[in-house]
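Repro:
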Amino acid sequence: MHMAAPKKVLVLGATGSIGTSTLDIIRNQKDRFTCCGMQANNKKDALAKLAAEFNCPSSLTAEDGIDGIKRLIEKTKPDIVVNGIAGSAGLVPSTLVLEAGVDLALANKETIVMAAPLMFALAKKNNCKIIPVDSEHSAIFTLLHQCGRENVEKLIITASGGPFRTWTTEQIKKATIHDALKHPTWNMGKKITVDSASLGNKGLEVIEARRLFDFTTDKIQVVVHPQSIIHSLVRTVDGIVYGQFSEPDMKHPIIQALDYPAVNADFMKPFDLTDTADGTRTLTFEKPRYDDFPLLRLAFDAAEKDAAYPIVFNAANEIAAWAFIDEKIGFLDIARIVGDVIKQDWSNGIRDMQDVFDADTEARKQARALL
């Protein structure tokens, strides 16, 4: 029997949390995957070490720029690219992957939030796929596939609730960056951890779900589920809810994307509902507190209005979240700034990447002016 050659994986953002998890998968399943190239922002030493370990001659840092990524794709001829680059810096690399006609395992939210229609047009034109790697969207992607999209009437995105889930309104007002960085279940970079505390991250995921799966915002619900065991759910037209359960480990959605459309046995421990120290597991659910976490409502509005609104939500939030990280503004100022920027008129259509960048630049400028 002929064994298939290992799938060639190119990893963008190799030293970040998504990149690290992807390389761990390749390390554990050498017969199925091989790393043909890697990119990292600026950790040269770490990158060189990884390139040596994976016997991967093609590696580059951000200073090689966009042309460097383009050459990397051309040179390595990957079967699939994992984009784990953080923030809006991940958008152009996603474009390059799709322009090359290569399947994109996408962990970069901004690609979809900022430019989904353009990305799907590119993927269609070049006959390649966009497979979501966010744990929530990976779960919905799988559930829609399993239940049949035509049978699903509601997408239910789960949220951990972040570190301030049980805080009072008064306590939240005084939250510091040190408080915000204590995430209860996930270990991530600073910006995304702050976004989890403000529920801005969940807001981005609502926009992403709206654009990835083409469901209107009234068919998307957010449910707070602190244990982060159920990664999302769908409700079918008969009112029954189906969910995807696994330990909170990003390797699950990454493997699903790398293997898609196949489902294969892997090295991860099978999920067991009673596998805890005391043999019990309690899963709880509650409504989000929209008044205390106003970014979530702002995101629903942006998703509904579409046009340039999702770009603006993302850009203003990026400026405000970093200002909070740098201790220039208070926690509640993040939503205030985003709200002030987004209430302008951003209804102009997005025809091309230049329109995307123009809206992004203008929103950032306005957000900075409000600091």
